[in-house]
Design a protein that fits this description.
By secondary structure, the first copy, chain A, is of the alpha+beta class. Helix content of chain A is 39%, strand content 24%. In chain A, helix 3 crosses helix 4. Chains A and B meet through helix 5 and strand 6 of A and helix 5 and strand 6 of B. Chain A binds a DNA duplex (25 and 25 nucleotides) through helix 2 and helix 4.
DNA sequence: TTATCTGCAAATAATTTGCATTACT
DNA sequence: AGTAATGCAAATTATTTGCAGATAA
């Protein structure tokens, strides 16, 4: 029995073919962040016959089960916003999106995290979740 | 000639009734952040006959003209994401969204801003734009 | 005047849902 | 076997667009 099978069981999800394929794809792809449509195409390209609706349904179940994390990168460039998904590996991190290549870089900064807590606290709140996205471009070597 | 008229002229936009109304509403409302639909309703409720398509068109022109800023608060609660708009007063700030009341609190933190620059720099990038949203809930007094 | 703007209705795009069928356990 | 999951197509939602008529400069 595969490792993914166990993961699905632990999440309380019945082990079906589409769920296994989607989970495996997300684990194996070099592109950590994928949209529902990219996942749909990737699977169909490798011969799987899985519907787009199923991809959306499974991703949202995975999200509830904390197997996956959903992001809305609004690249500011006016394009229609599309959700993208990545495996939830437990440790939180923030994102940098390169506006030229579309590349997504992950980072984590203790100082920023702590500061956020302090700010929420000061205003009488506690943080439930947060999202920090920096839209960046490669830096000119001379500058 | 009203102040808003001047603002529109400066932005290179023809001064039309819908544009004036939308700009004034955003300046006068106590609710700094409004969705296109909220703006549409608010104006129609006060007797203006302005189409929703026009509201969208004007908002996107305002955004290009830097009169307005657009946000996608994905409150994590699974509701469909809707853009919301606020007047662009020049100085940048980040947001806290209360998950219980929907209230939007603005804040600015020099330390976080600086840290972001450093991180982007360290990775070989420069920041074009960024978005930090904290989803929060009122803090229990005892805790 | 005359190009630009507006309102309406129809078009898109991303995502969701209804339902008959299929697949886990 | 029996319930839950899937695929397809139709429905929704937010937003955009085409076009004929209205309007600002």
């Amino acid at each position: 029995m595969s490792e993914e099978t166990t993961e699905l069981r632990k999440a309380g999800l019945k082990v079906t073919h589409p769920r296994l394929q989607i989970l495996r794809l997300l684990e194996q792809t070099d592109q950590k962040h994928m949209t529902a449509d990219q996942i749909y195409r990737a699977l169909n390209d490798q011969g799987e016959d899985i519907g787009l609706a199923t991809v959306y349904r499974v991703l949202s179940q995975f999200e509830s089960a904390q197997l996956v994390r959903k992001h809305m990168f609004d690249d500011g460039s006016g394009r229609p916003a599309q959700a993208c998904y990545e495996l939830d590996e437990g440790e939180h991190h923030d994102h940098m999106v390169c506006m030229e290549t579309g590349e997504v870089i992950e980072f984590f900064d203790e100082a920023i995290e702590r500061r956020q807590e302090e700010i929420a606290h000061k205003h009488g709140y506690e943080i439930v979740d947060h999202s920090l996205v920096m839209y960046v471009r490669p830096r000119k070597s001379n500058g």
